[in-house]
Design a protein that fits this description.
Shape: elongated
Order of helices and strands: HHHH
Strand content: under 5%
Distance between the termini: 22 Å
Pfam families: DUF423 (PF04241)
Number of strands: 0
Radius of gyration: 16 Å
Keywords: Membrane, Signal, Transmembrane, Transmembrane helix
Subcellular location: Membrane
Number of helices: 4
InterPro entries: DUF423
Main location: membrane
Number of domains: 1
Helix content: over 70%
């Protein structure tokens, strides 16, 4: 699960950088609504970067398909959910908003997969 640890570091780093960029560089460029949309993307990216970190650490003790699936879905969710919010707020193209719910579904699937992995612990 080294890849999830690397992705956690990458997404955590870029979430901090994007949050700072929004607070200092975009504050005067975007409307308050679009700035809030951008910050929502940053928030969900950071939460799921931390989830990836936890998965990477947990996978040392509990390897399995459910955790691998959860990590993959968290990555997909970050790309689709946060990525679409970044693009929407920077471009103003509202049609990009149709992608966002698919990222949300990926996040939900990731958390469900984590639950499945946890459920398997009680059966052992």
């Amino acid at each position: 699960m080294r890849v999830f640890l690397l992705l956690a570091a990458f997404f955590g780093f870029t979430a901090v950088a994007l949050g700072a960029f929004a607070a200092h560089g975009l504050k005067s460029q975007l409307s308050a609504d679009y700035l809030a949309v951008f910050q929502t993307g940053v928030h969900y990216q950071m939460v799921h970067a931390l989830a990836l970190l936890a998965l990477a650490l947990l996978s040392v003790h509990l390897p399995g398909r459910a955790l691998t699936l959860a990590g993959g879905l968290f990555v997909l969710g970050i790309l689709l959910f946060s990525g679409s919010l970044y693009l929407l707020s920077l471009s103003g193209v509202r049609g990009l908003g149709i992608i966002t719910p698919f990222g949300g579904l990926a996040f939900l699937g990731g958390w469900l997969s984590l639950g499945v992995a946890a459920w398997g612990l009680t059966a052992r």
